[in-house]
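Quick start: read one record
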Amino acid sequence: MTSPLAESQVWPRRRWLVSVVLVLASQLGFVFWLAARKTDIPAMPPARPLISLPADQTADLPGVTDPTLFVLPNLHGFSGPAWMQFAPATYTLEPWTEPQRPLELTTLQLGATLAEFVHANHSPLFEVDMKPEPRLDAVGYLPLEEAPSSFSVEGDVANRPLLTPLTLDSWPAAEILLPTEVQIAVDAAGRVISAVVLKKSASAEANASALSLARSARFQPLRWIGPQPPPAAPDRLSWGKIIFRWHTVAPPNPAAPPNK
């Protein structure tokens, strides 16, 4: 059997629970109290390159305050000892004495030796190897002054024969005349409805003659039904060009002025 003193010293279960809860609560409060305390930590400055200069800059770096130290020649820069601080050359002139006797050669004989050497050692003559002139084969063509004036027809009207002959003249000019091009429009009856000069030559008379010949040209008419040819219609016109190549002759010599 248990004695009454031992029974009185045993804690009940409820008392144990209350004691454990109090201990845990005290520990949690102590933890939260420590966490609430803030300690001011000084911020670390960012790492940057540091340049240390002596207190007396002019003593160790002379001329450092001059902005043109490395641009212009300066006694304190690298160009100072090179060519700004140098010792002048020292030399002494020899005493001049007149020659005891004049020159033995005259003025005309001073270049005689050189002249004899040049005449005795002249370079031999040589021939330049020139390329032969190109050989031109004979071609069957008329000389320029004998070629008569001619013409050619191009475009849609080139397939239609020309019924009226065109007689071209030769024109006097100091230079060769360029061809004259005339654009024409021909209807179904072979008549030239429109004639316009596209390219002119240097002779106004030749251009006027080309325009007149183009307007008077007659081409082979197209087939139609009826006794009379149909009237000219824009949708039934044939377009083309007549190129006149002129024969150029020498202009006459101007008459000489009469003698006074």
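DSSP finds six helices and six strands in the chain.
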